[in-house]
Structure formats: structure tokens, C-alpha cells
Amino acid sequence: MSISEDRRPQGVRPSLFLERQSYRRRRLSDAARFLPILGAALFAIPLLWPGSDEAGDGIRLSSAILYIFVCWAVLIGISLVFGFAARRMATQDETDQRPD
Amino acid sequence: MATLNVLILVCLGYVVLLFGVAFAADRLAAAGRGAWLRSPLFYTLSLSIYCTAWTFYGAVGNAARSGLEFVTIYLGPTLVMISWWWGLRKLVRVGRSQRVTSIADLISSRYGKSNTLAICVTVLAVLGGTPYIALQLQSITLSFSIFAEADPTGLYREGSSVFWVAAGLAVFAILFGTRNLDANERHHGVVTAIALESVVKLFALLAVGIFVVWGVAGGLGPMLDQIDSSEIGQWNVDAGRWTTFVFLSAACFVCLPRMFQVMVVENSDEAHLRTAAWAFPLYLLLMSLFVVPIAVVGLDLLPEGSNPDLFVLTVPLSQGNEWLAMLSFIGGFSSATSMVIVTAMALSTMVSNHVVMPIWLSTQGGAGSVSGDVRHVVLMARRISIAVVMALGFFYYRLSGGGAALASIGFIAFAGISQILPALVGGLFWRGATRTGALVGLTVGFVLWIYTLLLPEMGGGFMSGTIIQNGPFGLEWLRPQALFGIEDMDPIVHSVMWSLSLNTVAFCVASLLSFPSPLERLQGAQFVNVFDHSVAPRGWSGFVAQSEDLMIMTQRILGAGPAQDFFQAESERQGGRSSLPEPTPAFLERLERELSGSVGAATAHAMIGQIVGGSSVSVEDLLAVADESAQLLEYSSQLETKSAELTRTARQLRDANTKLTQISEQKDNFLGQVSHELRTPMTSIRAFSEIMRDTDGLSPEEQTRYAAIIHDEALRLTRLLDDLLDLSVLESGRVNLNMGGDTLRSVLDRAVSSALAGSSSGIEVRRSKSAERIPLHTDLDRLGQVFINLISNAQKYCDADEPVLTISAHDVGGQVVVDFADNGSGIPPEARSMVFEKFARVSGEKAGGAGLGLAICREIMQRLGGEITYLPGQGGPAFRVRVPLAYRQAAQ
Fold first, then answer.
1. Cα distance between residue B316 and residue B209, in whole Å
2. Where along chain A do its domains lie?
3. How far is B629 from chain A (nearest CA, A)?
4. What is the pLDDT of residue B889?
5. Structure ipTM
6. Could you read off the pLDDT of B214-264 as tens digits, one per residue?
């Protein structure tokens, strides 16, 4: 038996819309959640490529290397940008004294 | 010519450098100047122990055999790192807030501090880790042998070199990994050495790669052409292996004990994850950048049949570039050593906390936590475990013959360790996950892993060929490598698929069917909602009488100094003046967490339970778990809390009242005493002076005698008045301090000799003079006065047959702490709060003075910016004097 988790305490009703800054912040953490999904999808694409044993003219290894490493670099870049955004968020949180 | 001997010299030099770096980092951190050691850069670099010798050498070998497949073991961790915001961040937060010491500790802590689970995870980790250590030893030996072949003059014996490598690594891990008991404290030395090693291995691999691309192949364009025309020039990757390996490496990146150690336990700041989230994938990318070029060039240049696992070494060697080969050797050596050291550390923490300590505790019976040197036992257990783990790895290597069979061990170990994943992820994200679920899931996964992968891969000795061919008892659907009739799958993919999926199913089903204990539900709420409430559950209720027992136990685990500091801080937090805090639930819970940093959650819980007598879960806590809308219950629980608070306040008020009454009584007594003390000498002075005035013909001897009596009594009066005056001057703050500089030792020397001067009762004073060589700048006379008072008190009141006074001194962060402890019978608890009050005397008539000595001492120490306190839990009366090393005007 387990206890239902989606019942929230009947506290004060939150306002319907968030202010602009909090809204941005929420979407940013959404983006952080999407990032690994994007990464997994990008790295799964090579599985659709034809193998070499079918017609003899499959994808060349150099193109495969290029694809994988470019995807990798892009993910690192996005993660870097998100890291900086998260830092700005954290410092704002500290000045606002408001939990996320 | 880089001979084997040069190689060994370079190797030894490198090891000495590592020792030096680790030592220097430990020293820096101990001196408090190691802030930069805790930077995100070091954190990221320490994560790179993920790249072992298996990846350093094996990646190129893997690429030479199956093209780009090697990249999967780097892609998995990359995906984990970029999802840090909702994955690792939670793990690290939980690890830090629960003061977790290992992955086994985390799992045990989440599921109600269950030691059974911890043992399961420990066994799994040791089983998976041993072959992995053997693999590292093998890679070091193999790379040695490459140089040995090239140098026929060198005398090289494989067996002995493996032994010395294993022994050296064990010594390093013991020296720097078990220095402090608190596994939660950062091992700066080890982490810094690892960071250095990860720079070295990256540099080495990049150097070889650049040499291969621009030095051998002649640039980027020709290199790409050569790749395409090589035998691995076409994209040809098995989809099942690709997905499985990405998933497996991602799982292991979190579950491997050594990764958990550097990622969670050694983490000093959650914010470091932000940097590591992009920096570590970048590191992995750089590590794998030149793997394919090296493999292709190796396949092209080297004769058919040469071991592709060693291309990183043999390609530069075949081009005559021996220094590059040596650099790459050092790179591989770095990857192997750093991995082995951290693994040994992590495994030893698990073994000592979850296997040795519980056994030791149960053999000690109920008294285990208050008697015996727990600290020593834990450290010893940890050291022996390191040696045992290394020995296991060594013997595994010798038994398996170091053959090619080892190469496939990496993935087998990965598959074993990843069985922890369902329990870990379920524990972090699903409140319904229970202990039974975790146990069943782990067992199912573990058994399937052994049956479908470990035994068949280990070869004929462990599982007969007929079972593999026809299944046990002829049951074809139970064939280990074709379970349920699914054939022709890659064995690793097959095993991972079945073991992990059935593990997850068993975990979920058993969790849904079982019902968790209250403690489990509390911990579940703590873990899953760690960002909402970082306060831990309050499970303890204690009584004042237990504080002293707790203190004694804590001293044995943390050591006297840290334990006293912790209790002092807690007592201050509660606003009390005594050095023993009230055992409030909050305090007990903080104490448990502090202890779990040393001995693990389950053991700490059990030890406190032995003293406090079982935990209780309050209504409030259960409400937090249930999260139901039972407002009424919550209200009543709030009332309960308030009433408990009121009871505490009332007790404090009662205490204060008793103290006031006592003081007032003592003041009355004192007035009587002072009048008496003043009157007695006055009477004799008057009497003898009258005799001298009125009696004629006194002989000169008699005159002298009477005058002497008058003089003595006058002296006594002066002394009493001096004391009173001294006290009033000190209390009003109008005192002048004569600052001077000297060492503590000479102040104590003077105090001891003047306190014991002319006394007949021989109290033995034990000191450690070397520890007293601490320079002081303060009012030396006043400090000496305090010391004299304490020493002569001990001399006067110590009632032991052979009185011994022990004076010990240490320097604690800008303060000198001097303890005076004698072996007499202690001061009864009810009198402790009074000893520093004016006119106080412990036992009415025993004392000779007016009861002003300790009061004066306390005032003096306040003026000097220090303090004097009674030190409980030492077996006899003990006082602690704290003096700042350099006097600063106290802002009073």
C-alpha cells in the first residue's frame, strides 16, 4: 500500500499566473529537464543509419565521428549556458530570500 | 634509450610526486588555507576517476575491434551530467543533508536505516569491484611488459611487480584515505592527487593523439581519409549493444562506489555541479577525441595480431618516440592508480561501517557504545579492509591468470553494480518504495546477474558447459544465456536486459505489496522531498541523565576535542551555560547525523538507541509522512510540542529559581562567615594587644610571640580583604591588565612551583611539557593566579589515595585549552552549576577559604577574553581553561 502523493495540503490558493521572472525561471528548469531527452534522442539517431553489411556503402566512419562529436559539443554548450543561468538564478534567490 | 630501469625510475618519481602533492594538500587544508582545493575545477577533475585504465587503454582496443562503440561508455555519463538539475543535484543534496558515507549507507539510510540492505549493497560492490581492481593491476603489468620486451637487458618479473604495485596503492590509500575518521570530511590529499592524475592522463592521451594525427598521418584531412579506408571505416554498430552500453555506463556513473565517493561524499559545495555539468562532459569528449585515429593508425602500422589494447603505447614506440610512450605509460598508470585508491577507500568505508561495526557492536553487548575505543576500532577496520580489498584484487588477478578474459570484466562489473539503480532511483523519486521492495529487487537482480553473466563468462570451472548448452535439469528455457528461449543475443545485453528489468519489476511489486515501518516512511519523505524540507525527522526522546552517557560515547567515536566542541555548541544553541546540552529530540537527531558521518547511519542509529532506549516517532513526524489533511491531529500535535516546550521552560525557570535561592542562602551564610572570619582574628588581635598593653614585665620572647600572633592575624585579615577587593575590582571592570609575552610552559612551571611550595601533601602533577610550548600574550600574572588556584584546589580537595593531577594543553584554532583533571571523587552534578559562584563551597566545612577562589578565577578569565568551565565526563573533577593566544580587548 502506498499513500497518494498528488494530494496537496489545502493551503492558500496560489495565484493563477506567475510574475514574469518566476515564469522564466520555471521554463529554464523545464529546459534543464528536456536537455537529457534531447541528448538521448541525438545519440539514438545513429541507430537508424544503415549498417555497412547491407549494401556495402553505409555511413562512413568519419561522418559518424563528426556527427557524434558535434552533437556532444552542442550539448556541452547548452549545459554551459544553463549553468550560468542557474547561477544567476541562485544569486537572485539569495537576494530575494524566496524559495524556488 | 628509455630502458626499463629509466621507466621504473620515472614511475617511482611520479609516485613520490603524488605522495608529496597529497601530503601538501592535507597540510594546506589542515592549516585552513586550502579554500582553492575546494574549487569546482578540482571537483570536476576528481570525477574523472571514471576514466580508468580500462578506458585509457581499452577504449582504443575497443575502437580497433568495433569502431565507434567505445564512445558509449562516455555518452552515458555525459547524459547523466547534463541532467544534473533534477538528478545529481538531488542525490548530492540528500547525501549532504543525511551525512551519507557511501552508496550502501545511502540505500540503507533511505530504507529505514536497514543494515541488511547495506550489507547486500556492500557485497555487491565488493564482488563487482574486485575484478575491476584486478583489471587495473593487469593494465599496469601489461604496459610494463611492453617496455620489458623492448629492453632485453632489464630483469623483469611480472608476479612480483604486480605485488609491489598493489602494496604501494594500499599504503597510499591507507595513509591518505583513513587519516580522519569522519568519512564525511573531505580527503583533500587524495582528491588533489586524483585531480593531478586526471590532468596527466588527459595530457598524455591528447599528446599521443596529436602525435598520431599531425605527426604520423599528416594532418586532419589525410587522417579522416585514412579512417574511412581502414577496416573499421564504416558505421557498423549493433543497436542493442549501443543502447545497453549507453544506459549501463549512465547507471554505473551514479552507482559505482568510487564515483559515489568523489561525486557525493567528497562534494563540498552543491554549486560545483553547475560547473561539472559542462566541464566533465568536455573532459570526456577530449578523452575520446583521438581514440579512433590512434586505433586506425595502430591497425595500419603495427603487425597483424598485436594487442590493440596497447596501441596507445605501441604506436609511439614503433615510431621511435620513446618519451611519448613513457608519457602515455604514466597516463595509463595514473588512470589505474587513482581508480584503485578511491575504490579501495570507498569499499573499505562500506565494509567497516556495515559489516565490521555491527558485528563488533553485537559482540560488545549493550555496553558497546560507552566502553572501549570505538574510534580505534573503526579506523583499524577501515585500514584492514583496504588491505583486504587490495589483496582480493591481487589474488583475483593471479587466479584468473591475467589473460584476455579480464578485458570483458569491465562490462560484467558494470552490469553487477547497476543492479543498485532501481533501489537508488526508486528511493530518490518514489515515496512508496519500501525496504522489502529494495531487498527483493536487489536479490533478484543480483542472482540473475550471477547466473546469466558472471558464472558463464568466468568459464568452465564455475559453470559446466552442459548447463550453458541445455539449461539446468534439461530445462531449455532456463539456459543462462538464452533465458525464456530468447536466443542469439549478445550475452551482456541479454543479461542486463533480464536482470535489470526483473529487478525493477520485483522492486516495484514488492514495494506495492509491503508496508513500510514509520522510520522508513519518514526517511522516504526526507529523501523524496529533500528540497521542500531539509529538516530531518525527529525520532528521539531523551532524559537529562543520558547526556553524560551520550557525551562519553561521542568522545569515543569523534575524539575528545571535537565531541566537547560539538556538545558545547549545542548547549550554546539551547541557550544554557552548562556544558551538557539538554537531550532534546533536535539535539539527538543532530548528534546521530554527526556520528553517522563516522560510522554510518545504521550503526549511529543503533548506538544512540542503546543509550536513549529506542526511538519514538512523534505525531508531527507521522503527519509529515502521511501528508493527510488531518488538521485536528496536527493542532493537537502542535499543542503537544508547545506543552513540551513549556515543560522545558518551566524546568529551566525552576532551575534558575533554585539557583537564586541557593545564592541568597549562601550570601547569608557568607555574611555570617565573613563576620566570623573578620571577628576571629580581630578578637585575638585585641586580646593579645591588650595583654601587651596591660601586662608589665613580659619577657622579650613572650613579646615577640604575641606580636607575631597579632601580625599573623592581621595578615589573614588583609588576605581576606584583598580577595574581596580583588573580586569587586574584577567585577566592576576597573582592572588593569599587565600584558606580557611568555610560553604557556613557563607560566605553568611558575604556577606549579608556587602552588606546591611548602606543602606536605604530595600530589603528583603529570604534564606533557612538549605540548605546552605555546607562546602566549596576555596578563601572565593573572593567568598564573588562575592556575595556582586550580592546582592548590586539586591539592586541597583531591581525596584519592595517591592524588594525581593531570594538566594537558592543546592549541585549538587561536585558543589555548588547558585541562586540569585530578583523580578525586567528582563534583556532584547539583553542585556543578554553583562552583563558580561567589561564596560557594562544595562541602560546607571541608574548605578552608572563603569560597572566593573559583569566582575570582572566572572573573579573571572573562577579563582575559577566555573562560573557565567545569569539564564533565572525565571521571573526576576537571576544569578547562581557554585562553586566546593573543589578548584582544574584549568588547564588553
1. 10
2. 20-48+62-96
3. 7
4. 46
5. 0.78
6. 888 888 788 888 777 777 777 777 788 888 888 988 998 888 888 888 888
What is the C-alpha separation between B266 and B49, in angstroms, rounded? 13
Shortest distance, CA B49 to any CA of chain A (angstroms) = 20
Q: Give dist(CA B189, CA B183) in Å, integer.
A: 14
Low-confidence winner among A71-80, B305-314, B643-652 (lowest mean pLDDT): B305-314
Contacts of A3 in chain B (CB under 8 A): 431-432, 625-628
List domains and CATH numbers for chain B.
Answer: 4-402 (1.20.1730.10), 405-534 (no CATH), 536-628 (no CATH), 657-732 (1.10.287.130), 739-884 (3.30.565.10)
Res B202 pLDDT > 60: yes
Cβ separation of B82 and A78 shorter than 8 Å? yes
Residue of A nearest to B87 (CA): A33
User: Distance (Å) from the C-alpha of residue B400 to the closest C-alpha of chain A?
Assistant: 36
Asked if A83 and B275 come within 8 Å (Cβ–Cβ), the reply is: yes
Residue of A nearest to B528 (CA): A5
- CB of B392 closer than 8 Å to CB of B133: yes
Query: B175 with B20: CB under 8 angstroms?
Result: no
> Which residues of chain B lie closer than 8 angstroms to A46, CB-CB?
68, 235, 237, 242
Residue B183 has pLDDT above 70, yes or no: no
CA gap B319, B312 in Å, rounded: 12
Residue among B78, B275, B515 whose CB faces A39 most closely: B78
For B430, the 3-state DSSP assignment is: coil
| For residues B92-117, average pLDDT | 83
* Nearest CB to A83 within list B246, B277, B289: B277
| pLDDT digit string, tens, across residues B767-782 | 887 878 888 888 888 8
Q: Going by C-beta distance under 8 Å and a sequence separation of 6 or more, which residues neighbour residue B325? A: B2, B147, B313, B314, B316, B317
Q: How far apart are CA B118 and CA B112, in angstroms?
A: 11
pLDDT for residue B505: 93
